[in-house]
């Protein structure tokens, strides 16, 4: 399952982190200010000390707030004053008192009113010379005093604010790190584990599906593809090495056998053990085995040469009909000696092709030679040429036993040899050489089993 891109996830995570950090800081500062406000703002209890403790705490509050206390009679006339009276009022109406008393100390709308003073009205104790006590505080003094108290309290709470900021920042960083670790570290850990398995030589490594960002999912898919390709490359290399080793064993046997024959014949001739009338047969055997060794060496040279980028194909205009007839004529004697029949169907008007005459002749002769060599149960060999508008089809077929199924997919590969018993003098390189030559000409070679015929087809372009 895929999610958004890695960049998108990082940006969105950072935005959430920043928002949470700002909200946390504002909440902390707000809580601190509220605490200071509640702890430091003047209260009704503080103002009541102007009446209850006029010579103690009341003096401090009076000086801080520039407040004073007025004694009123039943008609709200000013009878007595404690402190420094800042206004000229000598009596109050009910409306004046209501305006002052409706405002509360620390009211947020205090600065928006036209009232200069706020007040607290309290009944006097029995036996007093007045009926009411009126505490008056200048509105401007309250605001200034609140600010003054905040400034007074901030030094004491500054370390708390700093510690809170550090704690909130650390908490947000920890949450952000854990979030990223969960979203990124887990997929990376799985990928790293897969690399460790490959490094340790484990043959098949595939990462299990996981939910992550698009980039990490792409890395996972690429890793799985790479691991599969690496596995099959190792398999192919092992199979190639196995076939190469088997080829070397086969070639060593194929070379050793004719050399042993040559050595035995030469020693028999040297010691005079061969009658005069049989000496020519011994010489012919030595010559035949020498040709066999030469063919093996030539095949190896051609195979190695075709693997090089310097392998040259000298193309020229070639008449495919004439070339095919010449190759068939070469094998007529062998066909008759084997008691087989060679049916040739080659038209005279075949379109010319661009090809290396010697290399193409080697392909056709190799196919004809194989048909003779391996057709041990049939009676016929068929050679046909079909000229098409854009291609020429060479076909060599025999009615012998079919090639086993397990070799049909790999018969044109290097080092593949169908006759594992080595009952023939083939090297197992002939068809691989044919395939390399045909492909260098831009053509295709294939094996087809049709009814009772083994057919090898070579398609070459005419342009």
What's the short version?
With 463 residues, the protein is α+β, with helices and mostly antiparallel strands. Helices cover 56% and strands 14% of the residues. Mean pLDDT is 78; it is low at 104-113 and 144-153.
SSE layout and pairings?
Blueprint: H1 6-40, H2 44-52, H3 57-65, E1 68-72, E2 78-82, H4 94-102, E3 117-123, E4 132-138, H5 139-199, H6 214-270, H7 279-306, E5 316-318, H8 320-330, H9 332-337, E6 341-345, E7 353-355, H10 357-374, E8 380-387, E9 391-398, H11 405-408, H12 430-440, E10 444-450, E11 453-461
Parallel strand pairs: 6-8
Antiparallel strand pairs: 1-2, 1-4, 3-4, 5-7, 8-9, 9-11, 10-11
**Shape, per Cα inertia axes:** rod-shaped
| Tally of discrete structural domains | 3
* Count of individual helical segments: 12
The largest β sheet comes out as: 5 strands, mixed
Overall description:
The structure is a single chain. The chain is an alpha+beta fold. The protein folds into three domains: 1-212, no CATH class; 215-305, Helix Hairpins; 312-461, Heat Shock Protein 90. It is 56% helix and 14% strand. The protein contains twelve helices and eleven strands. The protein has helices at 6-40, 44-52, 57-65, 94-102, 139-199, 214-270, 279-306, 320-330, 332-337, 357-374, 405-408, 430-440, and strands at residues 68-72, 78-82, 117-123, 132-138, 316-318, 341-345, 353-355, 380-387, 391-398, 444-450, 453-461. The strands form three sheets. It has a five-stranded mixed sheet with strand order 6-8-9-11-10. It has a four-stranded antiparallel sheet with strand order 2-1-4-3.
